[in-house]
Amino acid sequence: MDNSIEIENLTKIYSGRVTAVDNVSLKIGRGMIYGLLGQNGAGKSTLIKILTGVLKPTSGTARIAGNDLNKDSLKIRRITGVVPQDLTTDGDLSGRENLKLVAELYDVPKKEAEERIEVLLKMVDLYDVRNRHASAYSGGMRKRLELVCGLVNTPEVLFLDEPTLGLDVTTRENLWSYIRSIQKEFKITIILTTHYLDEVDSLADKLSIIDHGKIIISGTSEELKKSLNGDIITLKLKNDDEINKIGEFKNATEIKLMENKEIRMKVSNSDEILPVLMKYLSDNSISPESINIRKPSLDEVFIEYTGRNINAEQENKDYAKFMRAR
Amino acid sequence: MGGLIPLTVRDLKRWYRNPVSAVVGVIQPIFWIVLFGSAFDIAKFAGANTPAIFEGAPDYITYLMGGILTIIGLFTGMFSGINIIWDRRLGILQRLLMAPINRASIVFSRILSSVVRIFIQVAILFGIAFVMPNGLKIVNGISIIDVVILISAVLMISFIFSSLFSIIAVRTTKMETVFGIVNLINLPLMFASYAMFPPDLMATWLSNVAKYNPVSWSSQSIRMVLIHGSLTSSEAHTVLIYMLGLLALSVFMLVMTYIVSNREIRE
Fold first, then answer.
1. CATH 3.30.70.100 in chain A, residue ranges
2. ipTM, interface predicted TM-score of the complex
3. pTM exceeds 0.90
4. Shortest distance, CA B179 to any CA of chain A (angstroms)
5. pLDDT of A46-90, one tens digit each?
6. How many structural domains does chain B have?
7. Contacts of B136 (CB under 8 A, 6+ apart)
8. 3-state DSSP helix/strand/coil percent for chain A, to nearest 5?
9. Which residues of A touch B89 (CB under 8 A)?
10. How far, in Å, CA of B12 to CA of A90, rounded?
11. Does A125 contact chain B (CB < 8 Å)?
12. Which fold has domain A3-225?
């Protein structure tokens, strides 16, 4: 498979101080949905803004569909579609007028644009409300409009920056099915940034975990889960004595002390190890407040490689707070 | 400049679809000419000396017309930057920055739509000035060249001030900054000029300052063609100097806007 995007040592430093993207190198194959998973502020949106020509990198380069980021910025903008994190459609224009404006900005011939707009509006079930002002749309409808705005120019690469941020569960799943059908219909490369683990697990063919501007690990969801080499058992203990004793448990491949006296233990097979662990706890008079057994998941992969939990709920609250403050 | 026309059309759609802004746009010229022209009718103190004091104008409204047309250009132009900040705050600017267009067209579309709105207001103002009792009197006729001078003067003053405030808005995220600057400079620009009063009625220092104010250049040019019709060679020379001054300033401001908006516009 040839590559749609090739990123080489891309770095972005804001105001000479804050490193938002730190020496990122990545190759993304043509026609796949590629997920960039990371917390807010991890550098995902900055990376997208660089790749779409909105921001200039401090150093490094990238090639998008064979075009050099530093030389062919205008060409790249022409062949990419973007669905940014924030709403970018004009509430004072109707859904159809918004799409028409985007078509005009991308120089799509008038007749072709009209046909395409009709297809896109039908695809995301907005055709019946096409003449209504976008400000009257619900959150989900508005997001769907944003989604098709990114497709008016039939891009080779579509960037989706946190496409379901702040939406309810049903609307999110709804939007996922639209994204899948877009990929199937147009056979384009889709780059998806998100901090929702289920989103990347459900949609992405391949993903990278990004943290503090760096790519920590890349692979398919299955590969990353396998890389954990086993299951995870977490125990919430009461005191340092118990923590010291559990540290000597021999059947775990790895034992880590997390926050709030929580022990994260990696074991080859939790079904076999659990009885052994229970006996060890009993023999050593350790009585944990809670025991949790988890099979490899992206959540665990994220904790493993970043040392932190990806707290989507908190991030949503932070985002809502941020939007209210605007 | 790709994107200029669709973005201008979009801006105008937003304007006429908003009932408040459309009504304000129509009422404002009426207020200017009816309220300001009548309330400040200082010509009534001059009596028979009115033409001598007011540069040949038969009454104050006829004298004021050049000033008011200029001030409409000045005020509407000043607020053209506001829309750029709105687009930034609403996120729309982000979509425009991602589009394969010359980024200067984002700014120039606001300037162009301001100019269209200014000319709609100017047309309304003329209509009202003619039909109102004791309104505008064009006693010496008006030629095509006079109309061209009038339109050019309003056009250039609109370009100058909408460019100036668009440049400010290119990097500003706060509405308050632009409102603050508008409030700070609009009154000095208006009163330190010949827009409202002839130089002879001003303090000497103010009259000296007003000489260099582009608002004076535009007001005087429009006034001279409206009052005198066909100009004498010395009047034509004065108008030419003013118009060249306005042209130089417009070209400078538009070039600056192009450079600044292309290089500096940020989401």
1. 229-295
2. 0.83
3. no
4. 18
5. 999 899 888 889 999 999 999 998 888 889 999 999 998 888 999
6. 1
7. B61, B62, B65, B126, B129, B130, B226
8. 40, 25, 35
9. 326
10. 13
11. no
12. Rossmann fold (3.40.50)
